[in-house]
Structures are given as C-alpha cells and as structure tokens.
Amino acid sequence: MAALGFDLKLIIAYTINFVILMVALRAFAYKPIMEMLEKRKSEIANGLAAAEKVREKAELERAKFQEELEKARRASQEEAAKIAQATAGMREQILEKARQEAEEIKAKARAEIEAERQAAQAEIRRQLAELTVELTRKMVGQTVDEGKQHELIGQFLSEMGD
C-alpha cells in the first residue's frame, strides 16, 4: 500500500481519530443537537395543537354567535309581528271609533232634522190656525169667541192630520 501512497499507520491513526471524533461529536454535539431538534419538534407540535385548539374555540364561538344572531333575528321578527298585530288592532279600534262617531253625528243630525221638522210643522199649524181664524172671521163676518175658535182649530187640524 505504500506504493499507492497509503501508509497503514496513518490510516489506522486517521481511523482512530475519526472514531474518537465521532464519539466526541456524538457525546458533545449530536446529543445536544438532537435534543434541540426534539425540543423544537415538540414546540412546533405544541404550537400546532394550540393553534388547533384556538381554531376549534373560534369555530365554537362562531357557531354560538350564529345561533345568538338567529335567535335575535327570530325575536325581532316575532316582535315586528306583535307590533304589526298591535298596530292592526289599534287601526281597527280607531276605525271602529270613527264609525261610531260618524253614526253618532248622523243620529244627532237626524234628531236635529226631526226636531226642526216638528218645529216647522208646529209653526205651520200655528200659522194655519191663525189663517183659519182670520178666514173664518172674514167669511162669517162676526167675531168668534175663544172657545169656538179652539173648537174650529182642533177640528181643522184633525182633518189635516188625516
């Protein structure tokens, strides 16, 4: 091997040095590096687990928020329906009150018309009675006493009423 440029003592020395270097590296460098890599791997796994927990918690919060939002929507729709129903009820009450007031006004107007009609009839009867008395005086040419006047007026009015 010497002819090839290899010295056996040197190769053995290099081999021993290499083994010592490997043992030293394993003891002083490989083990700490592996521990550091294992620690890093553990931290990454913990970080991923924490991120997954946060994602799950966020998903639960989102679901809870959606549920509360849906409850709020339903509650607002129910409230709107109640308000609409109450408004419709109030509208009906107002319309009914307006109808009643209109009927009262009509009834009052009818009563006033009837009172005015009766007053007009009474006035017409009174004037007719006066005319009748006056006409009777002129036709008979004499004065009719008060008792006779009442009798003639009553007879005339009873004939007019029929």
Keywords, please?
162 residues, mainly alpha
What overall form do the CA principal axes indicate? Answer: rod-shaped
Record field, number of beta strands? 0
Distance between the termini: 168 Å
Number of structural units classed as domains = 1
Strand content: under 5%
Task: Give your account of this protein's structure.
The protein has 162 residues and is mostly helical. The protein has one domain (10-161). It has helices spanning 8-140, 146-161. Helix 1 crosses helix 2 (146-161). It is rod-shaped, with a radius of gyration of 62 Å.
SSE map:
Elements: H1 8-140, H2 146-161
Helix pairs in contact: 1-2
How would you summarize this macromolecular structure in one to three sentences?
With 162 residues, the chain is mainly alpha-helical. The protein is 92% helix and 0% strand. The chain has one domain (10-161).
